[in-house]
Specification:
Elements: H1 3-9, H2 15-21, E1 30-33, E2 37-43, E3 52-58, H3 67-78, E4 88-92, E5 98-103, H4 110-114, H5 117-122, H6 125-144, E6 150-153, E7 162-164, E8 170-172, E9 179-182, E10 188-189, H7 203-208, E11 210-211, H8 213-229, H9 247-258, H10 260-264, H11 278-291, H12 302-318, H13 331-337, H14 342-348, H15 358-367, E12 370-372, E13 377-381, E14 388-392, E15 398-399, E16 408-411, E17 421-424, E18 429-437, E19 445-453, E20 466-472, E21 475-482, E22 501-502, E23 508-517, E24 525-533
Antiparallel strand pairs: 1-2, 2-3, 3-5, 4-5, 6-9, 7-8, 10-11, 12-13, 13-14, 15-18, 16-17, 18-24, 19-23, 20-21, 20-24, 22-23
Helix pairs in contact: 6-8, 6-12, 8-11, 11-12
Length: about 525
């Protein structure tokens, strides 16, 4: 066995672990279907640090699923070490399965945000520049950060493969088509048929079938135009009286008809028009246009691209340009980021919110928890998704025997955001009921209901299976084998058991159910019920 093979053994994940994380590769955990690959979201077990991961299952009949291609990809991704490359967690090649596991990108991908008008309007110009900068640094690492004698050409760089973590930091992913290439070799013959995704592929590579780092630079330019125009590269659009064209065709047409500045500036995304300084927007488009030059020798280096984006970002963050139409001075922009019922939320806030502008209000609602009504309902606006998130305090819940001092007592803990918590003393069985009006939530959004709690070191009787029930729109969703405390005897665990996980704030949480809120259901009240026997 070779040393490289031995080194990879520490990354091997048993198929049973994968099956448990994906719930037997169920559609519930499926987050992407790429034809030759299926991508699932899952959570690994304690042995793998309970990591949230993306699990890419390769079709063994496709080219990426053959043994040589698969192990080449595993060796490739396991060698990366850069903050803008998605973290490799492990792999599985048991029972004819070919699976690669990476850290899950909480905010999905760049195309996920650009392709939806609502999400795109929330993606500020500053955020877009930061994402482009991170992606550029990641590509630069592939081209020149792997040692003196080799580089990696991604070959399939596109907005779908620019993944975004919980902080909206760019992480390049999907290296199934990537190739090692000697750094002192300008081109390398890979295959007669070009690889990659149409609309992002370098046309020169299309013609010659020869691969070089400039292929990635061409694709990077396409993504830059997606970012500045708000249009996806692969969507056909009408232009004047001509046939429908792809984004890069439109870019070239505007440039030919109107020149660089006047032509390309007409393509700016209207949702960011009040946020940009046109001088640096020109420079951004100029460097993007150089990337798609049909003469590879005239394309910029990644270092030049990084420098141009850094300058635009530094200027954008300073906000001191003369006559800049900056976000900082436009209440209407920040109001678009607020929930539609924000005025009602303000009226219910306890104590009253102190803000002087819509921007200040936005950060009041998203940076910290806002208490509503009597102070036992917590509200927060998720900055990345725009979702409204609520937490019911114990005063908002109905708990069996909560007024009986023999079973429960009310107290305060500095570790809770609420002024009072309900502390369990001794009960023979436990039942907790809560409800929230779905009209308070964001429409056309999938929510997850959680129970949040703390346990003491001497708590007993919680490591037995419970049943949770969520009633929504007349539909009852029940889940068996839910534990408030993980049993110590692992041999009694079952495949579908659901256990609590520790949050960043130290509290435990357990998932109850997924809930899809639609406009039709906005006036229907939502209830969830947790019951468990305490033996």
């Amino acid at each position: 066995m070779s040393s490289s093979r031995v080194n990879l053994e520490k990354y091997r994940i048993p198929l049973a672990e994968i099956i448990q994380a994906t719930k037997h590769f169920s559609s519930e955990t499926l987050v992407g279907d790429g034809g030759f690959t299926m991508v699932y979201r899952g959570q690994l077990s304690n042995h793998w640090e309970n990591q949230q991961v993306a699990i890419k299952q390769l079709n063994v009949e496709g080219s990426q699923g053959n043994n040589k291609e698969f192990h080449n990809e595993v060796k490739l991704v396991s060698s990366f070490n850069h903050p803008n490359i998605i973290l490799f967690v492990g792999y599985c090649d048991d029972a004819n399965e070919k699976i690669i596991v990476c850290k899950y990108a909480t905010n999905r991908s760049l195309d996920y945000h650009l392709n939806d008008p609502d999400r795109r309007s929330r993606l500020t110009w500053e955020q877009r520049l930061k994402i482009c900068l991170g992606a550029a640094r990641g590509v630069n690492y592939l081209h020149s950060g792997l040692g003196k004698h080799c580089r990696v050409i991604h070959t399939d760089f596109k907005s779908e493969n620019v993944l975004l973590d919980e902080n909206m930091e760019a992480k390049i992913g999907d290296f199934g088509l990537s190739r090692f290439c000697p750094r002192n070799q300008q081109d390398t013959h890979v295959r007669t048929r070009p690889c990659g995704t149409r609309c992002y592929i370098d046309p020169v590579n299309n013609e010659r079938g020869r691969l070089s780092k400039e292929c990635d630079i061409y694709s990077f330019g396409v993504v830059m135009f997606e970012v500045s125009s708000g249009m996806m590269a692969y969507k056909l659009r009408p232009l004047k009286d001509t046939n429908e064209l792809f984004l890069i065709d439109i870019v070239r047409s505007y440039y030919d008809d109107h020149g660089l500045v006047n032509g390309l500036d007409r393509l700016k995304d209207p949702t960011i028009k009040d946020q940009i300084d046109m001088r640096y927007f020109h420079k951004f488009n100029e460097i993007a246009h150089e990337c798609i030059n049909m003469d590879r020798k005239k394309r910029p280096t990644m270092d030049k691209i990084i420098k141009a984006i850094e300058e635009a970002l530094d200027f954008q963050m300073s906000g001191i340009s003369e006559g800049i139409n900056s976000v900082k001075y436009y209440d209407d922009f920040w109001e678009r980021l607020l929930p539609q019922d924000y005025q009602e939320i303000i009226a219910r806030a306890v104590p009253p919110l102190d803000f002087g502008s819509k921007k200040q209000l936005y950060f009041c609602l998203s940076d910290s928890h806002t208490f509503l009504d009597d102070g036992y309902l917590s509200f927060q606006l998720d900055m990345e998704s725009g979702k409204k998130c609520y937490m019911l305090g114990t005063k908002q819940l109905s708990i069996e025997w909560q007024d009986n001092p023999n079973h429960w007592e009310w107290g305060h803990t500095l570790k809770s955001r609420f002024p009072q918590v309900c502390i369990l003393k001794n009960v023979c069985w436990l039942a907790i009921h809560g409800k929230i009006a779905s009209m308070m939530l964001s429409g056309y959004t999938t929510y997850v209901a959680y129970l949040v709690f703390r346990t003491t070191s001497n708590s007993q009787g919680l490591s037995v299976p419970a049943k949770t029930t969520v009633n929504f729109c007349g539909v009852k969703m029940e889940t068996e084998n839910v534990y408030l405390q993980r049993p110590k005897a692992s041999e009694i665990w079952q495949e579908n058991d659901r256990f609590p996980h520790r949050r960043k704030d130290g509290w435990m949480e357990i998932k109850l159910e997924n809930l899809l809120i639609t406009m039709k259901e906005m006036l229907v009240r939502l209830r969830w019920l947790l019951t468990s026997l305490n033996i």
